[in-house]
From TrEMBL:
Belongs to the SurE nucleotidase family. This is 5'-nucleotidase. Pfam families: SurE. It comes from Kribbella sindirgiensis. It catalyses: a ribonucleoside 5'-phosphate + H2O = a ribonucleoside + phosphate. The gene is surE. InterPro entries: SurE (IPR030048), SurE-like_Pase/nucleotidase (IPR002828), SurE-like_sf (IPR036523). Keywords: Hydrolase, Metal-binding. SUPFAM superfamilies: SurE-like (SSF64167). GO terms for molecular function: 5'-nucleotidase activity; metal ion binding.
Length: 252
């Protein structure tokens, strides 16, 4: 069976990863768990300070699974594992189970999703799985979905990435599985504020919004569907108009 790296952005002791790892190991995969020591939610693909310096780690064993925590980010965990820091590099990467949803174009900032995209940077296929609750009660549902997605992606082209959101409900109560487009974020907005000592800061405000656009991850997840969205990382737009325009401006 393939070697699977399991990581997350909630920390190596988070209940999501502790539910996911044994479920994937039970399917027969060679499981490697490497995740941040602490909560690194919202760090995106950051991995600064990883190269040419020692990385502090901690190790725990639970239910036969070894969990390695690193002083770093999810993208950093993937990078270290792919470089062979913890034995043979993984064949596949599974990121999650994230506490809370990861929907819409704002997944750009998600450490959970960024870990999967970091894997794809070197051609490793990956799945990011999130559970739609800040206080989840059905980790096994998401773990089951993750295992099935992993089995599918193993046979897909190298570098394939899926981001999956799972309703927090029993498996038999799911409405089904649907492909979903990424919604535009209308749930929250960032607003400038002032700290206790007059320092600038940003706070998150919930915003009222119109009904979700049908077919988006926001709408389908609210209807009880597991949402599946294939994604890609940064890639060029094949358009030389900007370079041509700049060249002309420089030669006027």
């Amino acid at each position: 069976m393939p070697r699977v790296l399991i990581t997350n952005d909630d920390g190596y002791r988070a209940p999501g990863i502790r539910a996911l790892a044994p479920a994937i190991a039970a399917l027969g995969y060679d499981v490697l768990v490497v995740a941040p020591l602490l909560d690194e939610s919202g760090v995106g693909s950051a991995r600064a300070g990883l190269v040419n310096r020692p990385v502090r780690t901690a190790t725990e064993v639970e239910n036969g699974v070894t969990y390695v925590g690193i002083e770093g980010t999810p993208a950093g965990a993937v990078t270290l594992a792919q470089a062979g820091a913890f034995g043979p590099p993984p064949d596949l990467v599974l990121s999650g189970i994230n506490r809370g949803l990861n929907i819409g174009v704002s997944i750009f900032h998600s450490g959970t999703v960024a870990a999967a995209l970091t894997a794809a940077e070197t051609g490793t296929s990956a799945v990011a799985v999130s559970l739609d609750s800040e206080a989840p009660g059905h980790w096994p549902t998401a773990a089951t979905i993750a295992g099935e997605a992993l089995g599918w992606i193993a046979d897909e082209p190298a570098g394939t990435v899926l981001t999956i959101n799972v309703p927090d409900r029993p498996l038999e109560q799911l409405a089904g599985v649907r492909h979903a487009s990424l919604a535009v974020n209308r749930r929250t907005r960032l607003v400038a504020a002032t700290g206790p000592a007059g320092e600038p800061m940003v706070v998150i405000e919930r915003t009222p919004h119109a009904p979700a656009v049908p077919g988006t991850d926001e709408a389908l997840l609210a209807e009880g569907f597991v949402t599946v969205t294939p994604i890609v990382g940064i890639r060029e737009v094949r358009d030389d108009a900007a370079a041509t325009a700049l060249a002309k401006r420089l030669t006027r």
